[in-house]
Specification:
With 350 residues, the protein is α/β, with parallel strands linked by helices. The protein has a domain of 131 residues: Rossmann fold (3-Layer(aba) Sandwich). The protein contains 11 helices and 13 strands. It has a 6-stranded mixed beta sheet with strand order 4-1-11-10-8-9, with helices on both faces. A hairpin with a 6-residue loop joins strand 2 and strand 3. It binds NADPH dihydro-nicotinamide-adenine-dinucleotide phosphate (NDP) and 5,10-Methenyltetrahydrofolate. GO terms for molecular function: methenyltetrahydrofolate cyclohydrolase activity; methylenetetrahydrofolate dehydrogenase (NADP+) activity.
């Protein structure tokens, strides 16, 4: 079962949208074949949104026009701010229609189980968002809430219960766990087939190894790849820099980009000359969680930038945690982007 709602939540992503040749991607072709095969056998398999190892040719959705002549501009690169919210909407609506068809064909829907330990307000908000996304897509969700001081065995029991439950297809243990709990031990008992976060060492190992396919790919890294591919950004052969090397974001993003044939460098807190390394990149993905770390002097003109970093703050009126400052200094990056626009477009900017 591969069908899960994964949030693609980029507020800011700047890049080049490339007008491509309008071919149906090989992923899409394989997807429709899978669907056709499955219709006859009544088994529904959701194809992966990003197919690993195989280079795809994606049809860019947008068409660009010269604002003066009105002529279509083909095969040119247009400086743009990638609209992550719009792409997320497209994905959510596609998942919702797949779930609907699944329900009509086999009378079942995917199920997500979330285990939340403790009372961290940010974790509560993240979990609430996931459950809301499930509801909107028609996915069943169940939740086990455990107190901060619970025993390791209580968490293990919750995991094992969901492992056995046939109506649960994905299990998510919200991180971080309270310090007295052994995260590694808990994640290791999670059934590989239900490891929707893709954090199990076997899933992560399969992501790292060529020719192997993990059952699940961590959601934020996969979201980044979706943004790039759907925006027509070429990855193969490009110099990519990933800032951050955590198990949740930095490491899997760097592995995914490598599998899409980028040459990847990783910048972390101990890296010397991070600015110089990053300035050489065609493609930058930042997941450090350090506000305004990336200034314009870190960016090459024409590079594609995806900013994953957030410093969530609590909205005092609602008590909800909202994403706040970002890794990339947005105004400076935007100024760099505007310099690349033809003068008549730059003049339109207020
Ligand atoms: N939008 C989304 O869907 C998601 C957003 N996030 C956000 O992404 C960010 C990263 O999250 P996560 O990976 O979990 O965080 P971690 O704190 O686990 O990792 C941060 C990484 O950034 C590196 N780093 C820290 N400071 C610097 C610096 N000054 N220069 C270069 N590298 C640095 C660290 O290096 P080292 O390893 O050397 O310590 C580490 O590898 C956070 O802001 C988080 O809120 C996270 C998950 C999902
Ligand atoms: N098992 C597990 N899986 C996780 O994926 C996981 C986790 N534990 N623990 C905490 C981290 C952190 N994390 C974030 C998700 C969204 C934003 C975020 O800010 N998203 C949107 C805003 C929210 C929205 O629009 O839905 C944004 O970037 O604009 C930040 C951080 C997930 N994590």
């Amino acid at each position: 079962m591969r069908m899960m709602v994964r949030s693609v939540n980029r507020k800011m992503a700047i890049g080049w949208a490339k007008e491509s040749k309008g071919c149906l991607s090989s992923t899409m072709t394989r997807a429709s074949n899978t669907w056709k095969d499955n219709q006859s056998s009544q088994i529904l398999l959701s194809p992966p949104l990003v197919t690993l190892d195989l280079p795809d040719i994606w049809a860019a959705k947008s068409t660009h026009y010269d604002p003066l002549s009105g002529q279509k501009i083909s095969n040119v690169q247009i400086a743009t701010v990638i609209n992550g919210k719009l792409i997320a909407e497209e994905i959510r609506s596609r998942v919702a229609s797949e779930v609907k068809r699944m329900k009509e064909c086999i009378g079942k829907v995917p199920g997500l189980a979330v285990i939340l330990v403790g009372e961290r307000r940010d974790s509560q908000t993240y979990v609430r968002n996931k459950i809301k996304a499930c509801e909107e897509a028609g996915i069943k969700s169940v939740m086990a809430e455990l107190p901060n001081y619970c025993a390791e065995d209580d968490v293990m029991t919750a995991v094992l219960k969901f492992n056995e439950d046939p109506s649960v297809h994905g299990i998510l243990v919200q991180l971080p766990l309270p310090e007295h709990l052994d995260e590694e031990k808990i994640l290791n008992v999670l059934s590989l087939e239900k490891d929707v976060d893709g954090f199990h060492p076997i899933n992560m190992g399969n992501l790292a190894m060529r020719g192997r396919e993990p059952l699940f790919i961590p959601c934020t890294p996969k979201g980044c790849l979706e943004l790039l591919i759907r925006s027509g950004v070429e990855i193969a052969g490009k110099k990519a820099v990933v800032i951050g090397r955590s198990n949740i974001v930095g490491l899997p993003i760097s592995l995914l980009l490598q599998r899409h044939h980028a040459t990847v460098s990783i910048v972390h807190a101990c890296t010397k000359n991070p600015e110089q390394i990053t300035r050489e990149a065609d493609l930058v993905v930042s997941a450090a969680g350090v506000p305004s770390l990336i200034r314009s002097s870190w960016l090459k003109q024409g590079s594609v930038v995806i900013d994953v970093g957030t410093c969530p703050i609590e909205d005092p009126s609602s008590g909800v945690w909202i994403p706040s400052c970002r890794d990339v200094c947005y105004e400076e990056a935007l100024r760099l982007l505007l310099q690349l626009l033809p003068p008549y477009l730059e003049a339109l900017d207020p």
